[in-house]
Amino acid sequence: RRLGIVWKQPDTLRPVFEMLGGGLEAKNGDNSLEVPVPTTLLVDRTGTVRNVHTEPDYFQRLDPEVALNWIEAL
Predict the structure, then answer these.
(1) Burial class, 15, CB count within 10 angstroms (exposed 0-12 / middle 13-18 / buried 19+)
(2) pLDDT of residue 19
(3) The pTM of the whole model exceeds 0.70
(4) CA-atom Rg of the chain in angstroms
(5) Cα–Cα distance measured from residue 50 to residue 42, given in angstroms and rounded to the nearest whole number
């Protein structure tokens, strides 16, 4: 939540999750319907975030070569 990579799904989807067994509530440990947005972070040794790739479409992931280039650039 502090990083801004949590998406609260609309309450109109609650019946869908209930029909599917409510697994999201069990995983979250609450009734929030929040899910993380897929994100890759490069954090340096001091704890500073150096690069961020956020993509709501979880089928689209950061290319590993891009991540390696981030590391090389440090």
Answers:
(1) exposed
(2) 80
(3) no
(4) 16
(5) 5
